[in-house]
Design a protein that fits this description.
By secondary structure, the protein is of the alpha/beta class. It has nine helices and eight strands. The protein has helices spanning 16-28, 40-47, 50-57, 67-76, 86-99, 111-124, 141-150, 164-172, 187-192; strands at residues 4-6, 9-11, 33-38, 61-64, 104-108, 130-134, 155-159, 180-183. It binds uridine-5'-diphosphate (UDP).
């Protein structure tokens, strides 16, 4: 996959459907994939922070969540022509999970927010199976990893803000049987409302 690069930060020139198509193949091949949202603020921060830049560039997909990226792509003759937002990417992945029978785990946000998000998503997608959840303030990391694996979830959404959620994913993905990881920031708050 040919990435575009802005100030050292990679961006995947795929729309929602292209990411789903690519992910489906990676899941079939048993590969793990990570999705991180990139906006101009993150690009600016990563320009001065080598560790953050590596964290972003090591993801499978860096989605173009911000009009600034579209403008930069247009000026460079790139292919990125529409935004791929973190919250809409999560919604599209949830629909994919419901339609193709993949279990989902929600990790992050306050207890009342994550439970409300779970309920709203289950109402929106009746075939969806959210097989587990955990709030973002639970301290027992071993318990969280054990619960995620016991849930048999193939998609995991982590909502603890950036870069905390991406650091957590990087540290724990090797212990998890999950195939698709997305750091989603405040998205559970959006779905819960
Ligand atoms: N959060 C969490 N654990 C923490 C810190 C934050 O679960 O230790 C949650 C917080 O409750 C909120 C989300 O992370 O639901 C933060 O969203 P924010 O909009 O700040 O993230 P951004 O989209 O800006 O990265």
């Amino acid at each position: 996959m040919q990435k575009e690069n802005y100030l050292g930060v990679d961006v995947t020139p795929y729309n929602y459907e292209e990411i789903i198509t690519d992910l489906r193949e990676r899941m079939k091949a048993g590969q793990q994939s990570t999705i991180i949202a990139v906006n101009p603020e993150k690009v600016m921060a990563a320009e001065k922070n080598e560790e953050l830049r590596q964290l972003i560039n090591s993801a499978t997909y860096q989605i173009a969540d911000g009009v600034g990226i579209l403008l930069a792509s247009k000026m460079k003759g790139g292919k990125i022509s529409s935004r791929v937002t973190g919250v809409d990417m999560m919604d599209r992945l949830i629909r994919f999970a419901a339609e193709e029978n993949h279990k989902v785990f929600l990790y992050g946000a306050k207890e009342e927010v994550v439970t409300a998000a779970k309920q709203k998503l289950e109402e929106k997608y009746p075939r969806l199976v959210i097989s587990g959840y955990e709030n973002g303030y639970e301290k027992d990391q071993d318990k969280i990893v054990k619960n995620i694996n016991a849930s048999e979830a193939e998609l995991l959404f982590v909502a603890m803000g950036s870069p905390k959620q991406e650091l957590w994913i990087r540290e724990n993905m090797g212990k998890l049987n999950v195939k698709v990881f997305q750091g989603v920031g405040g998205s559970f708050d959006v779905f819960s409302g």
